Amino acid sequence: MNWGIIGTGNMGKVLLHSLTQSQAVEEKNLYLYNRTLMKAYELLNQYPNVHVERSLTSMANKCDVLLLCAKPKEILEIAKKLQPNIRKDQLIISITSSISTDHLDQILPCKTARMIPSITNQSLTGATLLSFGQRTNAIDQQMIKQTCKLFSEPVEVKDETVRAASDLVSCGPAFLSYVLEDMIQSVEKETLLKREDAEKFIETMVIGFGRLLEERHFSLQTLREKVMVKGGITGVGMKALEKEIHNSFNQVFINTHEKFATEQEMVEALIHEAKMNFSG
């Protein structure tokens, strides 16, 4: 089975690495296309046995599964260009929450799915969020789940919770990186600790923190309770955090959901326009 990645930006590269490093897909069975062809050709230095195609038509003709790794508006444009060359037995997958399988089903005659990756997949860990179109059968769904299981924990999500899940799984690493970077900047400003030492301490702490959770030594709550000795220094610091950070993520999720709603309105309008043009 041949897989194609259309769009070799950040998440396209993550999926390329995850699929090949986990041996979910052999390099010889992977095809790449990018609007700026040189960016795709540059990846041959790291993945010498993948194929770079010069057109979407070629990708449609050679691939059984196509991953659309682009922004919502671009994904719709790509889907419309692919449509004349797509067979009913092919599978096309969107990687963005704003493009649902229903959206793809309205444009394409084939099987569809949505697979939202996380940058953590690059280390063959973390979650992958999955949704399946109406034309996919149990065998198709099992194939996608088994493929994702080689580099992540696949989780099926519904349309009504996909944005919230994506905020945690896909955006979460960026949000946590910001918080940790703020810790580093603050300790550098308020103490004599050098930045390079602070970065090293934070990195080793986060790795150890992840292992404690992975090995089920603690939950988030019991870990916090274990570290916070009554009347100790951690508790004093925690009071400052509770004052400054408590409920601050509410606005984060309000913002992401507002952006999500705006993107979905745009997608619906574009699909409606495409239908009107087709019927005209």
Detailed description of the structure:
The chain is an alpha/beta fold and 280 residues long. It has a domain at 3-160: Rossmann fold, CATH 3.40.50. Helix content is 55%, strand content 12%. The protein has helices at residues 10-21, 37-42, 56-62, 72-82, 101-107, 138-149, 162-169, 172-190, 195-214, 220-227, 233-245, 248-279; strands at 3-6, 30-33, 51-52, 65-68, 91-94, 111-116, 127-132, 153-156. The protein has an eight-stranded mixed beta sheet with strand order 3-2-1-4-5-6-7-8, sandwiched between helices. Helix 1 links the parallel strand 1 and strand 2 (30-33). The longest helix is centred in the C-terminal third of the chain and has 32 residues, at 248-279. It holds the Pfam family F420_oxidored. It comes from Allobacillus halotolerans. This is Late competence protein ComER. Belongs to the pyrroline-5-carboxylate reductase family. Residues 4-96 form the Pyrroline-5-carboxylate reductase catalytic N-terminal domain.
SSE arrangement:
Layout: E1 3-6, H1 10-21, E2 30-33, H2 37-42, E3 51-52, H3 56-62, E4 65-68, H4 72-82, E5 91-94, H5 101-107, E6 111-116, E7 127-132, H6 138-149, E8 153-156, H7 162-169, H8 172-190, H9 195-214, H10 220-227, H11 233-245, H12 248-279
Parallel strand pairs: 1-2, 1-4, 2-3, 4-5, 5-6, 7-8
Antiparallel strand pairs: 6-7
Domain Pyrroline-5-carboxylate reductase dimerisation: 161-259
Protein name: Late competence protein ComER
Domain Pyrroline-5-carboxylate reductase catalytic N-terminal: 4-96
